[in-house]
Write a structure and sequence with these properties.
The structure holds two protein chains of two kinds. By secondary structure, chain A is of the alpha+beta class. Chain A has two domains: about 20-60; about 65-170, Immunoglobulin-like (Sandwich), CATH 2.60.40. Helices cover about 35% and strands about 40% of the residues of chain A. Chain A is built from three helices and eight strands, in the order ααβββαβββββ. In chain A, strands 4-1-7-8 form a four-stranded mixed beta sheet, with no helix packed on it. In chain A, strands 3-2-5-6 form a four-stranded antiparallel beta sheet, with no helix packed on it. Chain A is flat and about 65 Å long. Among the domains of chain B are: about 230-285; about 290-628, no CATH class. Chain B starts with a helix and ends with a helix.
Chain lengths: ~170, ~625
């Protein structure tokens, strides 16, 4: 992080160095004033987003039927995850192909929400299929089945992929 | 040249502060992980949306320590500040970090917060506040930021006009891991500002010779050499200046300037032939670059000095054509910007997928307006304004999507209402009927439990009599009442029989009492299981009934409110975006105007020089002919 930070710092220095004769002071003042307004708009939008999210969740995913599936890579996992396919009670609910940026985000500890939906309380069959490439260049494909017990509270399920090992599914 | 040196020095000290999203580590909270997923992709609005919501919920909890975010709450609060900073929301970022700083947190966490706050202040040119925040760092400082804290302190000193203090701090940072090149270069600049010219030259020379693998370090090394060369040039040490310029890589961001200045250093040392080499390389490069344009005039000037006037004349001719063509391109660019094509090019999706979109923008066939804006686009103010424009465009699209979604929500709600409203009265009537039966049965069960509980302390065998036994007892009681009205003498035998039968019944009830009590409890347990099942079904029904109601009731007010807020924000975004766009266009046109003026000036110099060179070439030829 340290290196990246100062790289960014230096890039800015380079940019600034090259920026002789750039925007003059009157434009700079206008830009600054607009920057303040843009920050206010962003703040408003975030507040609207929070309210809208609550409304959507209440309307579309009531807690007693709410199910959300998340995909994560095991800590330190460096395999190339190409795709994840998920079936819930035999029905395909998600099929995702990862871009390089998304894969990198997963490798850095990010977690992807791959599916949000509604299921009734009770037991459900979850089938997770993963495709990718292991470090050595070998193809990796695996499918595992699990049983989900949906109670009256929202069900959050974490699916952890580790190359060469069984897919892990856990409640959160 | 002098102006260039000072501009370079002054601007070279300013640092843009960027932060990286923290790593999830051993993740315990999925929502926090989800926010990191977006942050790691540079989608800070999406990351903020999620983390804001998660932290909001966490703060509303009665027992937050039971929530999974509790394991990451410190990191999450920092991350919010980082995301806000990366999303160019400095005000909120500052507030978020201040909240950490003022909370009851560990010394190391507080020090890190103070450091981050100082970086924000420094970025906003609030130097006193930055120093104040740095002064709050006391006690244990996390190892990962220890050098960075000091480096920031040095930068703040330098920007505050305290180069001696900055130099002292930077002396201690020489060789610090992660600051290689930066600490050396900044020390050179600090010494220069502190009027210690010789020490500064020595330090910049050192910075220009460091071993570098990393691109950024290689670039700072180039920059050190460039500035060292400029300083040596200004003190008329041209040969040393040239050596310094020659150390700049030919493919780096400073190479054009280095080639140009190397040529001028050679010219100043009257080594005209040595100026030819760098300038010949430079004139083959991108003609929109200012250094290349200057070299187009400088190279024939050098040939003129070497008395190769014919070649010089041809080169001036080529320069003249180039300046004329470039002037036309600049004019076309200005027209194009006035037609609004610049802003349209900026928001093209395929460009923004690329992290080097500013560079890509230049190669778009339909956006000639960006050819000459590379310098401008590299400036911090313009970049911020551009990014703001793009952020507003994202926000506008988001708001428009939200606006459309309200109609879909209302449609869902209406369909649910139409489905449930006719069904619910009948369901409710049936439920009320069942509800009263359930209550009755529950009351009965409660009475039985109460009675059995009482029998543990006061045994009542009669309460555990079977139905047959109760009938027998009733019959015996009837017989007893009948015998009471008869003369005593005539019923002696019957009375004894009655007493014997009553005794048998009492014996049976008393001897089997404990067994029966146990059995009664077992039955109660079975009943409890049935009651629990019934309760669960009852609760499931109540929840389903509530869910049905909640699926279409209570949405109208929030939807109306949100629709209004989205509409207002959209208006505001459109307004600010138009202003922002207008400023960007004006600044771009202004910059292009400057470039056009410079091209016109070069063009007139070239025009005069062409004629002059031809004259000199003709005279030289005539002189040569005369001598023959």
């Amino acid at each position: 992080m340290q290196k990246t930070f100062w790289t960014a710092t230096f890039s800015a220095c380079c940019c600034l160095w090259a920026a002789i004769g750039a925007a003059d002071d009157s434009y700079r003042a206008q830009m600054k004033g607009l920057d303040e307004q843009v920050q206010e708009i962003k703040s408003d939008v975030l507040s609207i987003d929070a309210e809208l999210r609550r409304l959507e969740e209440r309307l579309l995913y009531p807690s007693n039927t709410h199910v959300a599936l998340f995909v994560a890579l095991a800590k330190g996992e460096t395999m190339r995850l190409d795709s994840v396919q998920i079936q819930l009670d035999g029905k395909l609910v998600a099929h995702y192909i990862y871009s390089y940026k998304e894969l990198e985000a997963l490798q850095k500890g990010g977690v992807q929400r791959i599916y949000t939906g509604n299921i009734p309380t009770g037991a459900h069959q979850l089938e997770v299929s993963v495709m990718g490439k292991l470090d050595g260049g070998r193809d990796y494909a695996r499918s595992d089945s699990f049983t989900l017990d949906k109670g009256v509270e929202p069900k959050l399920v974490g699916i952890t992929v580790a190359g060469g090992e069984a897919i892990q599914v856990g409640d959160w | 040249m002098t102006r260039a040196v000072h501009s370079t020095l002054g601007l070279g000290l300013t640092a843009l502060l960027a932060v990286q999203p923290c790593s999830g580590g051993d993740l315990q909270d999925l929502h926090f992980g989800e926010a990191l997923y977006y942050a790691h992709q540079g989608q800070y609005l999406e990351a903020l949306e999620r983390l804001d919501a998660e932290l909001g919920q966490y703060r509303d909890l009665d027992e937050p320590q039971l929530d999974s975010l509790h394991f990451h709450v410190g990191e999450a609060q920092f991350s919010v500040g980082d995301f806000e900073l990366n999303y160019r929301m400095h005000h909120r970022a500052g507030r978020a970090i201040k909240a950490v700083l003022e909370g009851a947190v560990d010394e190391a966490v507080r020090n890190e917060a103070a450091f981050r706050l100082a970086r924000i202040h420094f970025q906003k040119d609030q130097l006193e506040e930055a120093l104040h925040a740095l002064d709050r760092i006391q006690g244990r400082i996390p190892e990962s930021i220890r050098d960075e804290v000091e480096f920031l302190r040095a930068n703040v000193y330098l920007a505050s006009g305290r180069p001696a203090d900055a130099a002292n701090v930077l002396q201690r940072l020489q060789g610090a891991d992660g600051l290689t090149g930066f600490a050396e270069y900044n020390l050179g600049i600090a010494l220069l500002h502190d009027q210690r010219a010789d020490a500064a030259l020595e330090q910049l020379d050192k910075a220009g010779k460091i071993q570098a693998q990393d691109d950024a370090v290689k670039a700072i090394k180039d920059k050190s050499n460039l500035i060292l060369g400029d300083l040596l040039f200004e003190s008329n040490r041209f040969e040393r200046a040239q050596l310094s310029f020659d150390r700049v890589r030919l493919e780096g961001p400073f190479s054009n300037q280095a080639l140009l200045r190397s040529g001028w250093a050679a010219m100043s040392a009257e080594q005209y032939d040595r100026a030819i080499v760098p300038w010949t390389a430079l004139v083959e490069r991108d003609v929109t670059d200012g250094a290349v344009q200057e070299a187009l005039l400088a190279l024939p000037y050098a040939y003129g000095k070497l008395n190769v006037n014919g070649r010089a004349a041809l080169m001036y001719g080529r320069a003249l054509e180039t300046f004329s063509a470039e002037g036309a391109r600049v004019d076309a660019s200005i027209r194009s910007i006035r037609e609004g094509k610049f802003l349209k090019a900026l928001v093209r999706e395929e460009i923004r997928q690329d992290k080097d979109w500013v560079i890509r923008l230049r190669s778009l066939p339909e956006s000639p307006e960006t050819y000459y804006l590379a310098t401008l686009m590299a400036s911090h103010d313009f970049q911020t304004a551009l990014q703001n424009y793009l952020d507003l465009e994202d926000v506008r699209k988001k708001l428009e999507t939200w606006q459309r979604s309200f109609a879909a929500f209302e449609d869902i709600i209406e369909r649910r209402r139409k489905n449930y409203e006719p069904l619910l009265p009948e369901v409710d009537a049936k439920f009320r009927e069942l509800d009263s039966q359930i209550r009755l049965r529950q009351e009965q069960r409660n009475n039985i439990e109460k009675r059995l509980h009482g029998m543990l302390t006061a045994p009542r065998p009669d309460h555990l009599a079977t139905a047959d036994e109760r009938i027998v007892r009733e019959r015996l009681n009837e017989i007893e009442r009948a015998l009471e009205s008869m003369p005593e003498a005539s019923i002696e035998h019957e009375r004894r029989r009655l007493e014997r039968l009553q005794g048998v019944l009492t014996w049976q009830l008393n001897t089997q009492y404990h067994e029966r009590l146990t059995e009664a409890y077992e039955h109660l347990e079975q009943l409890n299981a049935d009651i629990a099942k019934m309760r669960s079904q009852y609760q499931a029904f109540v929840r389903a009934r509530q869910a049905a109601m909640h699926s279409y009731v209570g949405y109208s007010a929030p939807i109306t409110r949100l629709r209004r807020r989205v509409g207002e924000s959209l208006q505001q975004v459109t307004l600010v975006m138009a202003r922002q766009g207008r400023v960007l266009e004006m600044v771009a046109i202004n910059e292009l105007g400057i470039r056009r003026d410079r091209l016109e000036s070069y063009e007139s110099q070239a025009r005069y020089a062409v004629a002059d060179s031809y004259d000199r070439a003709t005279r030289a030829q005539a002189n040569a002919g005369g001598q023959q």
